[in-house]
Amino acid sequence: MTRNEKINLIERFEKLSFEFDDVLELSNELILYRPFADAWSIKEQIVHCMEVDIANFHRYRRAIAQPDTPILSFDQVWTMNLDYQSSDLKLTMDLIKMVRAYMACHLKTIADCDWTKYAYIHDKKGRINLEEALCQYSDHVDFHRKLINRNIELFDK
Fold first, then answer.
1. Which pTM does this prediction carry?
2. Among 15, 63, 64, 111, fewest CB within 10 Å belongs to which?
3. Which ranges in the chain belong to alpha helices (H)?
């Protein structure tokens, strides 16, 4: 990946921190709505993204500081056991923005480095280098945005 490709990826990554801003205009009923028994609400989708961003913050820094260090995944049990529905949504979204801005600022300083040498070992996905990780971090937001849009669409029916 070239420096310019990395910069574009970093900018996309940071821009995605604003992907959920429109949710604050929705009714609380819609934000907490679960279209299916095993589906997450909009709030749970966003709090999950915040949790993942915080985990990814630690992962990417570990990949640089201690390449090829094992990291643990976390699963859907977190959503239930940590009661994401009671989280402060605005604070959650602010945290996403702060973490992504901090990461973007730092990542730009190492855009000339070989990101394939910076990697962590995910307990389920194997070795993930920084180039792959940053793509996944962006795709993760896109995935959850689609689920949020699905909830909105199903609520309106």
1. 0.93
2. 15
3. 3-15, 28-32, 42-65, 77-81, 89-109, 130-155
Superfamily for domain range 3-155: dinb family like domain (1.20.120.450)
Spatial distance between the Cα atoms of 20 and 146, rounded to a whole number of angstroms: 11
Q: What is the pLDDT of residues 9-28, one digit of tens each?
A: 999 999 999 999 999 999 99
DSSP for 75-88, written as a single string: -THHHHHTTGGGS-
Mean pLDDT of 125-149: 94
Place of tokens 């949710």: 23
Q: What is the pLDDT of residues 78-94, one digit of tens each?
A: 777 888 888 999 999 99
> Residue 94 and residue 91: Cα distance in Å, rounded?
5
Would you call 71 helix, strand, or coil by DSSP? strand
Q: Where are the domains of the chain?
A: 3-155
